[in-house]
Amino acid sequence: MQPQLIRELEGLLGSQAVLSSPVDLMLYEYDGSVDLGSPQCIVFPTTTREVSEIVRLANRYETPIVGRGAGTGLSGGAIARNGGLVIAFSRMNRILEIDAPNLRAVVQPGVVNLDLSRAVDSLGLFFAPDPSSQKACTIGGNASENSGGPHTLAYGVTSNHVTGLELVLPDGEIVRIGGKNIESSGYDLRGLLIGSEGTMALVTEITVRLMRKPEAVKTLLAVYDTLDDTSESVVAITVRAITPAACEMLDGFTLRAVEDYVHAGFPKDCAAVLLIEVEGLLEAVEAQAAEITEVCTQFRAREVRAARSEQERALLWRGRKEAFGAMGRISPMYYVQDGVIPRTRLPETLRRIEEISLKYDLKIGNIFHAGDGNLHPLILFDERDREQFARVVAAGGEIMRHCVDVGGALTGEHGIGMEKNELMPLIFTPDDLALMERVRAAFNPDGRLNPGKVLPMGKACGEIRVPRTPASAAIST
Amino acid sequence: MSGPAQVSLSRLEEIVGGAQVDAGAEAAAAREVCGVRPAVVVSPENAGQIAEILRFAAEEKLAVIPTGGCTKLGIGSPPTRYDIALDLSRMNRVLAYDPHDLTLGVEPGVRIVDLLATLAVKKQFLPLAVPFADRATVGGIVAANSSSPLRHASGAVRDFCLGMEFVTGEGKQAKSGGRVVKNVTGYDLHKLLVGSLGTLAVITRVNFRTFPLPPAQGMFVASFSSAEVAFEYCRAISHSVLMPQIVEVADPSAARFLFSGEAAASIAPAEWRVIVSAAGPPAVVDRSSRELGRMASASKAVGFVSVREAEESAIFVGLREFPRRVLEFAPGAAIFRIGVLPTTTPSLLNGLSEIAKRHGIALATLTRASGILYAAFLPQEVSRVTPNPLPGTVAEVFRACNQPETQASAMLEWCPTDLKTSPDAVWGPSRPDFALMRRVKNSFDPQNVLAPGRFAGGI
Question: What is the model's pTM?
Answer without folding.
Answer: 0.96
